Amino acid sequence: MREHMLTAIAAASGLDALEACRVEALGKQGTITALLKTLGKMTPDERLVQGPIIQGLREAVANGIAQRKATLERAALDARLASETLDMTLPADAAPAGTIHPVSQVMDELAEIFADLGFAVATGPEIETDWHNFSALNIPETHPARAMHDTFYIQQGIDAKAAGTADEKTTFSLLRTHTSPVQIRTMLSQKPPIRIIAPGRTYRSDSDATHTPMFHQVEGLVIDKGITLGHLKWTLETFVKAFFERDDIVLRMRPSYFPFTEPSVEIDVGYTLVKGKRVVGGAEPDGWLEILGSGMVHRKVIEACGLDPDEWQGFAFGCGIDRLAMLKYGMDDLRPFFDGDIRWLKHYGFSS
Length: 352
Ligand code: PHE
Known about the structure:
Blueprint: H1 2-11, H2 15-26, H3 31-38, H4 44-83, E1 99-100, H5 102-116, E2 120-121, E3 127-129, H6 130-133, H7 144-148, H8 155-163, E4 172-175, H9 181-189, E5 194-203, E6 214-224, H10 229-244, E7 251-258, E8 261-274, E9 277-280, E10 287-297, H11 299-304, E11 313-320, H12 321-329, H13 342-348, E12 350-351
Parallel strand pairs: 2-5
Antiparallel strand pairs: 1-12, 3-4, 5-6, 6-11, 7-8, 8-9, 8-10, 10-11
Keywords: Aminoacyl-tRNA synthetase, ATP-binding, Cytoplasm, Ligase, Magnesium, Metal-binding, Nucleotide-binding, Protein biosynthesis
Protein name: Phenylalanine--tRNA ligase alpha subunit
Subunit structure: Tetramer of two alpha and two beta subunits.
């Protein structure tokens, strides 16, 4: 019987067949269960002989079933693993990804280009004092340039002035109208030689297709000994060629006026018409686009920062970042830059 049962168990082709074997031997009506019941009616002597035999049989069958069960289960798992395929090379469902805003992209590009030229990145506050934004830059209170800057004033500053408690160097009274106050802050906090760019937000009360009340500028400042207009020209040429990624770019310098530079130079970049669109570059330009203001730092500005203008000279420039982005990436309206329209960002944004 033992052999018969163990053979049947070992031959069980599946878990159902094995369960049938178990019921037949060990179930309530099972053969071994019936044998175990006979033990109670035996004499002690008989039981002493039959007990171990029947128990041994029960154990052997139970072990056989457990072993066969494990084998069948393993086989079932192997079969499932073989039939179910999981393709690890399939792309995962794309999570909605953000993009880099063109302004951030251009700021990063500027930082990289100027880092190669030895410029560090400097920053300053967007809420500024009168002194840093104007006076130290040789724009006195009565200067018409103040009116031209369409300044946003801060009520606290206005109140302090009215109350006579304003301090020109510490009372924050306006939103900076340009990044030039970072020139002042840098000269006050660092010893020359200085080579920095300062990208950031600027504010003017102005709004149309090419002006928004908040916009971005990048300031450049070099202070060292023996700096000339030639250094400025070379730096700007190198920058513009690297930024627009072409060598056939012609720059035009035009005399201009800024209170904080002398001489002052406006820089135009040559464009060529490609299918009616203005594209920066071309050895023989079809026209010019103004891209930045610059000049040699005015003696009065160097003096205002506690430096001796006979010892230290330098150049500075200021450039609209949004405009640079528009020219490089072909946008024709400035306003959507700041609308946060996700379709525009998808179209013009940069994937990270
Ligand atoms: N701050 C000037 C502007 O906003 C630009 C500029 C910066 C000009 C530095 C000369 C030197 O128009």
